[in-house]
Amino acid sequence: MRVFTDAQMYRPLFEEPTPALERETAFDGALGFMVGGMANLNFEYLGQQYFDAASLLAKAVQSKEYEDYSLANPILYLYRHSVELFLKAALGNAAKSHDLACLAEQFQALIKVEFDYDVPDWIGNRLKELAAIDPNSTAFRYSQNFDKATKRDIPVDGEYHVDLGHLQSSMLALSTALIGVVMAIAEGEGKSARAAPVLSL
User: Fold this and answer.
1) Closest to 51 in 3D by CA, of 188, 178, 195
2) What are phi and psi of 109, to 5 degrees?
3) Per-residue pLDDT tens over the stretch 72-113
4) Are residues 14 and 35 in contact, defined by beta-carbon separation less than 8 angstroms?
5) Which of 128, 127, 92, 122 has the alpha carbon at shortest distance from 110?
6) What residue segments make up the domains of the chain, in order of their start?
7) Which residues does 121 contact at the CB level (< 8 Å), separation at least 6?
8) What was the pLDDT predicted at 28?
9) C-beta neighbour count of 24 within 10 angstroms
10) Where do the H-state alpha helices sit in the chain?
11) The dihedral sign for the CA sequence 97, 92, 116, 83
């Protein structure tokens, strides 16, 4: 019979921070996470964390630490969620929804208003492609989508192959473009000539 330690069974996962946790660099002292308070992040920073986590998992697959199929859904989910968060960061007051197609439409409208610029086809097509497979952030998490008409979960329609190197490269390009827009909006560049080219990377 396996014996678990008292700490494994009873020590809280979420504890009050103490001065002992303070450190001079990110790699000093005990490693851990802060949740809430000053650790509450905006959508842009959260999106970057999900993007970085997807990239780390993809690198683990490429270095043969894990089989590709064993991390497929987490990688796809993390990339998709990073895109959703970058769109929400750009939109500011986005609806509380995971509907990627709707967010993409709002993003395209925002770019037209803010920059008097049409979102390049490659960005719109990439967002539609993600939305077609995982419209509401359930396909990569649960391997199914909820059908509102029949009120039941259905498996992802069709069968597809995703080339890992192409996925990484494409998600890097998409996130770079979206983050560029978020930064241009934050800096108040509006319809300036400098702002539109961030989308054409």
Assistant:
1) 178
2) -65, -40
3) 999 999 999 999 999 999 998 777 889 999 999 999 999 998
4) yes
5) 92
6) 42-200
7) none
8) 85
9) 7
10) 6-10, 43-62, 72-91, 100-115, 121-133, 139-142, 164-186
11) negative
